[in-house]
Write a structure and sequence with these properties.
heterodimer; A: 480 residues; alpha+beta; four-stranded antiparallel beta sheet; two-stranded antiparallel sheet; 19 helices; globular; B: 168 residues; mainly alpha; 9 helices; 2 strands
Chain lengths: 480, 168
């Protein structure tokens, strides 16, 4: 029978796991996370970014326990559920984290039921509705897969099996279905949902600091201990909600802005973005060549032990196999070589646009490819990047720019969801911005308000702004 | 405004919700809950808005954003009315929901909408993992009694309206 376990984590120090949590992390379903880089391809830009989803998940579990112990009267009965959900929140992640998730999301899109009201033929008059309706809320497939791993893995080492077993010293077994719901913020306790999945959740509290530390970047750092100290549980209309005391306003604002700069400087870093685009393009070719499972096959195989090997190493191995056995065309083989040997397109120009709420990009930012998924354009760029010039991909000059045959067509980093700091909504939401209690102790009848409604909040002034980044790249070997 | 916003505007028109309603919290609540119900079976008028449960029941941040877009563009809303109409079957479904929650004043009963939408969400999402519908109903009732005692007294009435709409 498993014992308790202490793990030394380089971010949080000693992390204590109870016997059930130890059995969970010992399961091959969870061990897989040791072989998935937290930041995907970022280790090819930041050499220290070798940390994994495994360490991150344990860190998130630890933080959830810290918060639970701060509020024993409200969270004591849910502590084990909370920690289990936090520990397992990323168990369904894809290799290279969100990179391959995006690839499979494209294949999954036609199967999704939510494609907009007009797809149901609501409209009698007016222009023809588009066949495909982009949703600004695509499902998080790693969460959907995670739900299935949590609730459907009933083998001897399965997560569902472990959760449902009564552990020594624990009060009761856990219901895998409830844990799975908590991961996607659908637990009956709004408080648990907030802690696991909101704008101020334990996931972000951990990864901002962990990623900053691993990359050596200053962005993403904030005062975790003081932020936790300022947390309060307040009853709003009778429902316990996680808030931050007003004395912690500055630390919350710092956290929100840290997240913004973290996205800008780490996730949207110019080379990382190119690498991600190349990898997406390669992954699609590997799927087409039968070297990675199709979306349909993956949904079946993810419930089998095969899924234990669905990690970064598998994708790299299949890349090499694709080239060695001639299973992909010359362009894809060239892209694989570019990726593995880090021979990448270089930035030619870069512009940032800070757009007002409800505003739009300036005209000069528009182009034939503006609004397209940046990854698609990069993939096209990669396809021809090994040629000095290309007849197929004609460069399109930007207004005011001289035509340069060495410059690729515009690449707009602006993905379908540009960096959005927060949105306006004068009420509390599980995935919305942190709330701040009033001057009085909110537990004794103080006021509660949304962060963005506070007149002295810098975050409130920035609410609704979006940042768009536009870059153009030289093919590898061309340009200065 | 994109096409989804335009279709949303027509839905809100059919529900009797106008642009100025969206400037009030109760008006936005009516929008949130009515669209939530229309996205569910048997109607499945699916905008793709995703909901989670919060203090005032099921809530979609994306729908809130869309609502603000409509509020900021009343003139475009008017233009939509002039060149688009909803199909008859769609209008019928919207009218079913509107009629179920309409008050004598003509506006939708935002508190009953909140209760009905919350009850539905609890029974289908939060407690959807329970295979017995009776258990789901009991759990939903208990949750409301604990968390929304002021509304829970009318739970049976909300349930009756949902049954009338064939949603439970």
């Amino acid at each position: 029978m498993a014992q308790e376990l202490d793990i030394y984590d380089d971010l949080h120090g000693t992390v204590h796991l109870n016997p059930r949590e130890r059995r969970v992390i010992d399961s091959p379903w969870f061990q897989r996370l040791r072989r998935i880089h937290q930041l995907g391809v970022a280790n090819m830009v930041f050499p220290g970014a070798e940390h994994t989803r495994f360490a991150h998940s344990i860190g998130v579990c630890h933080l959830s326990g810290r918060i639970a112990r701060q509020f024993p009267s409200t969270l004591k009965e849910h502590e084990e559920e909370l920690r289990a959900a936090a520990l397992l929140h990323d168990v369904g992640h894809f290799p290279f984290s969100h990179t391959l998730e995006k690839v499979y999301a494209e294949y999954a899109r036609p199967t999704l039921p939510n494609v907009g009201a007009w797809a149901n033929g609501e409209v009698a008059g007016g222009p023809s509705p588009p066949e495909e309706t982009p949703s600004d809320e695509p499902p998080q497939f790693h969460e959907l897969f995670g739900q299935r791993v949590i609730s459907e893995t009933t083998d001897a080492q399965g997560i569902a099996t472990i959760l449902a077993q009564k552990a020594p010293g624990a009060e009761a077994e856990l219901d895998p279905a409830r844990i799975a719901l908590t991961v996607i913020a659908k637990h009956e306790s709004l408080l648990l949902n907030q802690i696991v999945n909101s704008d101020l959740d334990v996931d972000q509290l951990d990864y901002l600091l962990r990623d900053a530390k691993a990359t050596g970047s200053s962005y993403g750092q904030y005062d975790l201990d003081y932020l936790l100290e300022c947390l309060e549980v307040v009853r709003v209309e009778g429902i316990p909600v996680l808030c931050v005391h007003v004395r912690g306003l500055h630390v919350v604002e710092h956290y929100v802005l840290a997240k913004y700069f973290y996205y800008l400087c780490i996730l949207y870093q110019k080379t990382r973005h190119v690498l991600e685009g190349i990898l997406c393009s390669i992954a699609k070719r590997l799927i087409e060549a039968g070297l990675l499972p199709t979306w349909e096959a993956l949904q079946e195989q993810m419930r089998t032990p095969w899924f234990w090997s669905f990690d970064d190493a598998l994708v790299l191995q299949r890349m090499r196999k694709a080239v060695d056995q001639g299973k992909v065309d010359g362009d894809t083989a060239a892209a694989i070589s570019m990726f593995l040997n880090r021979q990448l397109p270089k930035v030619h120009s870069e512009a940032h646009y800070l757009v007002d709420p409800g505003g739009s990009l300036p005209d000069s930012a528009e182009g034939p490819l503006a609004g397209e998924n940046g990854n698609t354009v990069i993939a096209e760029a990669v396809k021809y990047a090994h040629k000095a010039q290309s007849d197929v991909l004609k460069p399109t000059p930007m207004p005011g720019d001289p035509s340069d045959p060495g410059v690729l067509t515009e690449v707009l980093l602006n993905n379908p969801r540009p960096i959005r700091i927060f949105f306006e909504e004068p009420f509390l939401v599980p995935n919305g911005v942190t709330t701040v209690a009033g001057q009085n102790d909110a537990g004794r009848g103080g006021k509660v308000a949304l962060l963005e409604t506070l007149p002295n909040s810098i975050v409130a002034r920035l609410s609704g702004h979006t940042t768009h980044i536009r870059r153009t790249y030289h093919p590898y070997g061309a340009g200065p | 405004m994109d096409t989804r916003d335009e279709v949303l505007a027509m839905f809100l028109d059919a529900l009797g919700i106008v642009a100025t309603d969206l400037s009030s919290f109760d008006g936005r609540k009516r929008m949130q809950k009515a669209i939530y119900l229309l996205q569910q079976g048997p109607f499945k008028r699916d905008f793709g808005f995703r909901y989670n449960l919060y203090i005032k029941g099921p809530y979609s941040p994306a729908l809130a954003n869309a609502g603000y877009t409509l509020l900021q563009n009343p003139g475009q809303w008017e233009q939509v009315r002039q060149h688009m109409t909803l199909k008859d079957d769609c209008k019928r479904d919207i009218e079913k929901v509107r009629a179920e929650f309409a008050q004598p004043s003509g506006s939708l009963d935002h508190e009953m909408l909140e209760l009905a939408a919350t009850a539905h969400f609890l029974m289908h999402d939060t407690f959807g993992y329970l295979s017995d519908p009776r258990q789901r109903e009991d759990k939903a009732r208990q949750w409301l009694e604990t968390n929304k005692p002021a509304l829970s007294a009318e739970f049976d009435q909300a349930l009756s309206r949902l049954r009338h709409l064939e949603m439970v």
